[in-house]
Protein: Mannose-6-phosphate isomerase, cupin superfamily
Organism: Kriegella aquimaris
Amino acid sequence: MKTTKTLFLLFTVIAIGFSACAQEDKRPLMGNSYGIINIEEYVTLLPKSHNGIIKDIRLLDREHAGVRIFRLYDEVPMHYHAKSDAYLYILNGKAEFYVADKGPVVAGRGDLLFWGKGTAHGNGKILEGPLDVLVFDAIARDPSDVIWVDPATQKKFLGN
């Protein structure tokens, strides 16, 4: 039942959220509050390699939610977000994940991970790559809303 409610929430966010322009000069707009985005087209835009830990493409930025895709290239140290919950749907790959004091747990293609604002999380080894993830941030998370649990573990995150 909870899975059904979570998926309903995610698809509701998608349905009402298509009024922002996507990056990479793509325009998913079909009206002021709706549209269609082909996620696979955006996955093909993610580089095979990258000098940072993550490369992401913001698809939507709405007042109460954001949608993006990202590819992970390395481990992400434990961190949390003070203002938004996160729902991660794994499109491709498999990795270890840590949430709060649990882990590692292995999640892969077809799995949905989620946590509330303020919940520490990160990922360990990428077991199968590339690791491509569709993310729903509720509310839309500003890129600066990353608070490292141990600031000494912060790596060059986005790269150039």
About this structure: The two ends are 42 Å apart (CA to CA). Confidence is low (pLDDT under 50) at residues 6-32.
